[in-house]
């Protein structure tokens, strides 16, 4: 059971929108995310929803493939390509929850071998391994 909050959570109240009723930014303002152009037809909302669901399915499939590749890498020798064309190899161990770092063992670098290391995912351009 979660403990109740001792003090209320502060809430940011946005100013009134340009229409006078809503709160927030203008729907056609510069902060609106760019959406792909959908032809103006009576079926436009259906087409738009269909496109969004297709995109979401594609993203979910890519995410699942990525997570499965991480699972397949555990305990295997992996070659990493880093910035500046640096190539290193290591035994993949794990990743953190946010997939921001890879824990590796026996990291072989151009200047020597490190028993254990964390590789920042932002430094990795590509990785390969043999299943």
What does this structure look like?
- With 131 residues, this protein is α+β, with helices and mostly antiparallel strands.
- 23% of the residues lie in helices and 30% in strands.
- It contains one helix and five strands, in the order αβββββ.
- It has a five-stranded antiparallel β-sheet with strand order 4-3-2-1-5, with no helix packed on it.
- A hairpin with a 2-residue loop joins β3 and β4.
- The longest helix is centred in the middle third of the chain and has 30 residues.
- The two termini are 43 Å apart.
- About 5% of the residues have low confidence.
Summarize the entry for a quick read.
The protein has 131 residues and is α+β, with helices and mostly antiparallel strands. 23% of the residues lie in helices and 30% in strands.
Strand elements, count? 5
Query: Roughly what is the average pLDDT, rounded to an integer?
Result: 79
Helical fraction equals: 10-25%
Approximate strand percentage: 25-35%
Rounded to an integer in angstroms, the radius of gyration calculated over CA atoms is 23 Å
Strand arrangement, major sheet: 4-3-2-1-5
SS field, number of helical segments: 1
The protein's oligomeric status is single chain
Class per helix and strand makeup: alpha+beta
| Poorly predicted runs of 5 or more residues | 7-12
Q: How many strands, what sense, and barrel or not for the largest sheet?
A: 5 strands, antiparallel
Shape: elongated
H/E element string? HEEEEE
